[in-house]
Structures are given as C-alpha cells and as structure tokens.
Amino acid sequence: MNLMPRNATLAEALYREIDKNDYLQEIYGDLLYNYSIKLFHTDKRLRDIPVKDALRFADLLSKSSYVPTADRDHLWGQEIAILLRLLYPEDESVKYYLESVLSAVGNYRGLMSKTIKGFRCEDILDTINKQEYVNPKDLLEHFWNMFVVDAFLANFDRHNGNWGFLYNNESNAFEIAPIFDCGSCLLPQADEKIIDKIMHDSNELNSRIFVFPNSIIKINDNKINYYNFLTSTTNQDCKDAVKRIVPRINLEKIYELIDEINDRPTKEKEFYRYYIKARYDMILKPALDFANIQEYFSKFFSKIHNFYNL
After folding, report:
1. What is the pTM of this model?
2. 202: helix, coil or strand?
3. In this structure, are residues 233 and 293 in contact, taking their beta carbons and an 8 Å threshold?
4. DSSP 3-state of 128
5. pLDDT, tens only, 118-173
6. How many CA atoms lie within 13 A of 204 on its CB side?
7. Pairing assessment for the beta strands 217-219 and 222-223 based on DSSP bridges
8. I need a labelling partner for 98 at 20 to 30 A (CA). Which of 59, 161, 193, 248 fits?
9. Apex CA 289: angle with CA 137 and CA 294, to 5°?
10. Residue 221 and residue 118: Cα distance in Å, rounded?
C-alpha cells in the first residue's frame, strides 16, 4: 500500500494516482465501448453510463494542477466530456460541462465549435424568473452578487452546474445553496514563470485583467468580458449588486486569509495578494464608480422631469 507523504499538497492527493481509480477506468472503458458501437453501427447492447459521475470526473480532471500528471489529466477530461457529448447530444448537462471542461484547460479552439451551446445570459435570467423553487427576486440578487465576486476572482467557469439549490427532505423546502466549486479562480493553471511575468510586466497583467479570463456566460454568443460589462451595463440588477458587494470587500482580511495558508509557496501568496488588489482597483472600483454615477444622473434627470412636470 502506497501511503501519501504527510506534506503532500491537495493537488497531489487528488491526482497522483487518479488513473488507478477503478470506477473512473470502468466509466471510461464503457464510454469507449459505447462509442465504438455507435461508430461502427453494430447491434451489440450498450452499457449503462452514470452520466453525472462521468461529468464530475471530466470536470475534476480538467482542473488538475498536479504538474507531473496535469497534461495527461487535462486530455483525459476533454476526452471523457467529448465522448459524452457524442453519445448524449441532447443532454443539456453534457453540453454545459463540455464547455466548462474546454474552458478550464484553455482549449479555445474547441470552444469555438458550433456544437458548443454555451451559457446565454438571457436564458439564465429567464430560467431564474420562471423557476418555482425559491423567490425569483432573491435568486436574481444571488446570481448578480455571485457574478460580481466571480469578476473579482477571475472565475472563468461559473457554469450552471456550479450553483443551485439545497432541498430539505423534512420540511420539503428549497433554499439557495452556498457558493461551491471555485477552483477556476485566480489563474489556477499559472505556473511560476507566468506568475513572474504577471507581477513584473504591466502588459501581462493588463492582459489578465482586461482581456481574459472572461465569464463563461455569454451575450450575443460572446463570453462576457468582466471589465467591459461592469463598466457599461444597463442592467440595473447587476449595478445594484456592484453597490452591494464592492463596499463590503475587505482586502486586509483577504490578505490575512492568504497568509494563513500553510502549504503554498511565499511567492504564490504574494501573487494572490498582488492579483487580487489589481482586479479590485482595475475592475471593481471603476464598476462601482460607474454604478454610482449612473444612479446620480438618474436621480438628477428625474428631478428635472418632476420640476418641469415632464
């Protein structure tokens, strides 16, 4: 029995021998078997696939940060997600997870495929309004609060499988689930070389502030650019969320949390502090200024209209 070293990182604990996971190997083998039947049009019986578990494995593999196996894991995660897409073309969860996996590994050419549906903002907002699990107003507020925090943390993977509801069997009631699965925040694939570039080259930093990462959510088939959207949106619910969330952010407390992490290198902690401060100053502060100015002018013109009885 191979014991994990006591000082092993979480990434090593998760990914070091994931290829030896019997359940994962069984799912992968059954996916290949079923795809071969579909490809060669044979009359053999298809095997049952636990689609939800397969999607979770694909998602987990796509976020591997254990350097010795990361490339293998990323390819494997994409392969599982693509096989599921080919075998279950009408399954909405499969479509969503495929984009999430491709986004996590940086396969931007794959994301351009017309077979990727994406997460359209108008569809999400429409679903929020029509669902009957919780108060739509509360859920809408939660969604935009979450969007603002994701902008702050550079989350490129807040897909529809990364937030939802909790159900209480005893009370037969639903409630909004706490935030979970934030593994795609703060450039998780950045190695020491990239970190060094970002911290010492303003062009590298600006690229990772104003160009990417973007939200996985789309408007007009384009992923939302956090800076552009938050400093120009006409969506009042989003602007209200900015005014709720940004003033509550305490950078000093965040720095304290970062410093309390015991198993990360000092340089990595310095980078988190640096990058978080940059995103706060360069995205959230301008977004808050924009929201407040819009509110000021709205009230100003309202007074003019009232004065002249327009």
Report:
1. 0.66
2. helix
3. no
4. helix
5. 568 888 888 888 888 899 999 999 999 999 999 999 999 887 767 888 888 888 88
6. 12
7. antiparallel
8. 193
9. 60
10. 8
